[in-house]
Specification:
The chain has 245 residues and is of the alpha/beta class. The chain has helices at 2-7, 26-35, 50-56, 59-66, 101-117, 136-140, 142-166, 181-191, 206-212, 215-222, 233-239; strands at residues 41-45, 71-75, 92-96, 120-128, 172-179, 196-201, 227-231. The two termini are 26 Å apart.
């Protein structure tokens, strides 16, 4: 680690300390984060999918679950090579927003990132309808199609009002998609293409994560760019209790 601190160009102008934990668990990292009052964890995820992901587990997912601060995850390939060697300087930021309290709280972080990097922002809401991506149901039921079109229009209006009220000085636009949240967020990230995704953690319980999965985790493991996951205030407060000695 001392060699990395000495030789890594990115650390040239920064005060860097190398530390080694004797416990390699996610809980140990969480305890260290709280005791040292760390504001951001930056780590790699290998992007395992499918059966391999469930068999091996995901260390980054465990850190996401227990960390009390935002976590920035950069996806790498299984052989450890990163997707890009370029410096982190996002110019197109995708911000999924579902109007929940946790999602609202994450917007402040997204605005700060956008202002810092002078980046363009796309604020995205997904109208959840599992049949929408497949086509059939809405085409066969005019009343259902009208309902979802009204929901889409209302969401677009809310996003535009939000941008007008709170995103002054930041280049931001609204976008509404329909379908499964994780799938549509990933589609938007690839089509934009996004340099960074900033999203809230919903704080699902272990049982919920096993049964329905976590949207944030699915995005982390499949996104074409780094993902910054921000905890909601209630979740941060619960996790930020003093670490046991």
């Amino acid at each position: 680690l001392e060699a990395v601190v000495r030789d890594e160009p990115a650390f040239a102008s920064l005060p860097v300390k190398a530390r080694v934990l004797h416990d390699g668990s996610a809980n140990a990292i969480s305890k260290f984060q709280r005791s040292e009052e760390i504001d951001l964890i930056v780590m790699a995820t290998h992007g395992h999918t499918g059966v391999k992901h469930f068999l091996l587990g995901s260390f980054s997912a465990k850190v996401l679950q227990v960390a009390a601060c935002p976590v920035l995850l950069v996806r790498t390939s299984d052989d450890g090579r990163g997707a890009s060697t370029q410096a982190f300087h996002p110019q197109r930021i995708l911000v999924p927003h579902d109007f929940s309290k946790a999602s609202v709280e994450s917007l402040a972080t997204a605005r700060e990132m956008a202002a810092e990097f002078e980046a363009d922002v796309r604020l995205l809401h997904v109208v959840e309808n599992h049949g929408a991506s497949g086509g059939g149901p809405l085409e066969k039921d005019p009343d259902l199609a009208e309902y979802y079109e009204n929901v889409r229009a209302e969401a677009m209006d809310r996003l535009r009002q939000l941008i007008a009220a709170e995103w002054a000085g930041v280049s931001a636009e609204a976008c509404v998609r329909m379908g499964h949240p994780a799938i549509e967020i990933l589609k938007e990230a690839y089509e934009l293409p996004a340099d960074l995704i900033v999203m809230a953690s919903r704080g699902l319980s272990v049982l919920d994560r096993i049964s329905v999965g976590s949207v944030a985790e699915r995005i982390v493991h499949r996104a074409p760019c780094p993902v910054l996951v921000v905890k909601g205030g209630r979740e941060r407060a619960a996790l930020a209790e003093p670490a046991p000695s």
